[in-house]
Amino acid sequence: MTTKPEAPDGGGSDLLPKTLTTLTEGYDLGAFRADVIAGLTVAIVALPLSTAIAIASGVGPERGLYTAIVGGFLVSAFGGSRYQIGGPAGAFIVLVAACVTQIGVAGLVLATFLSGLMLMGLGLARLGSYIRFIPFPVTLGFTAGIGVIIFSSQIKDLLGLQLTGPEPGPLLEKLPALWDARDSFSLAALAVALGTIAVIELTKRYAPRLPSLLLGIVTAAVVVAMTGLPVETIGSRFGELPRSLPVPALPDLSPDLIWAALPWAASFTLLGAIESLLSAMVADGMAGTQHRSNAELVGQGIANMGAALVGGFCVTGTIARTATNVRAGSRGPVSGMLHALFVLGFMVVAAPLAAYIPLPALAGLLAIVAWNMIEREEIAALVRASRAEALVLAVTFAVVVLRDLSEGIVVGFALGGLVFIRRMSEAVALEAEEVPAAAVAAQDEDARARDIVIYRLRGVIFFGAAARLGVALERIASRPRGFVVDLTDVPFVDTSGARMLHALARKMARRGGQLYITGARPEARRVLRAQGLRAPEAIFLPDVATVFARDDRHQTRPPDPNR
């Protein structure tokens, strides 16, 4: 498939859904056929994943289907990515399960609705582009941590364990509870899970065009039904699935429930924004397109509110299904909308058959998802490249696994910011410059006797570097009476850097010296003057040579502080 690269959109067009862009470019029967094939392919992948994620999240499998159908349709219809596929995502499993435990399914639905409002607000406020500033080690540690959490949530069904009470959410509490239930281990459950994993992986390797996930689940269901293996199924735990969507209805909007749901809504919003925009960026990299971050957040917000109206839960862009959509030959958002309709068709026609799906098979499927979320090659490359970034990754991973997803993002982002500040401060250079030969000839004297030194600053002069530079410049300024600071190679000066230079100018003035600022760009000059750096404390000149030309014209020297 070939696609035409798209330029980033500006102005009001950054909120325009990609559906309208695709249709206005021209959409013919051939494109529709391609989208039908792509939509069907993605639906076959989404069907088992949606039910598995819903069950792992502590809600009924039907809610995963509602989320995939309504949320998936609205993400494609109103989002800012040409190829994004929305639906329930593995990254939300832990958050959703914890939310259900604390405030119930009604609270989860309300938190999803409120999250939709928040996502729309982020998009309308044009904050989508800022999500991209999250450092790569943070996203890498974050997704790896989610992979570990997802796998740990499936150990119970993988091994067929029977816990005496509710399964704890935190990993450090979950593992002892699972160990206490070791006597209930089921060899049949483990065999079904391993068999499902084997079928999926062998299909991927030897018949990659076949729907490996669906084939693995169907094979497990057939084997269990024919052999009568004693394992739990969707039917034995949840009963028969509904064959239609529920009538849309607003969630419970009681003040107490809203107050309880707000923290969860904020967590859903943060994670959903990151996950969806990462997925859109993956699609851009595969197809050579450019998504609209703000439109994507608005679309995600609409999708979450729509899913909540039918009892669904968190919707976000899903990387695996989006990548499948691109590889299947999608021409645009229509394939995403068709995928949702195909899932609806499967639910209407085959809902009774879903009752035969073994839960260990779904656990095996999610174990593969968890394994694939840990990008082992990327982690190894990052560890080899930078110890500091490896530390950011490790801390993010540890906080996500042992504490909380949102805390992991915040701590990782803060630590990544500190690493960046340290590196930027080390990149700032202070270099001594020779007095221009022309100035020496014009003065007809030894330039050193005039007691003027020149130092060139290179890099961004900001708060991280201001203290170190200030100490170095003050030591130098203790000797000369004329001090030239050349900012030609300084693209930016923040207020901390400006105050550092202002303090230097005052020190020079007290000693009877003169500070010259040369080569400052208009933006830097504006910040310096706003912090009080003006004549006569500091004289702004276009370049170093002008300093000496000025002395020639006026025949002046810096005053002697001893007079």
TrEMBL record:
It is found in: Membrane. The lineage of its organism: Bacteria, Pseudomonadati, Pseudomonadota, Alphaproteobacteria, Rhodobacterales. GO terms for cellular component: membrane. Keywords: Membrane, Transmembrane, Transmembrane helix. It is a multi-pass membrane protein. It comes from the Bacteria. The keyword Manganese does not apply. The chain crosses the membrane at residues 36-57, 64-85, 91-118, 130-151, 185-203, 210-231, 257-280, 301-320, 340-369, 390-421. Residues 451-533 form the STAS domain. This is Sulfate permease, SulP family. GO terms for biological process: transmembrane transport. It comes from Phaeovulum vinaykumarii. It holds the Pfam family Sulfate_transp. Its main location: membrane.
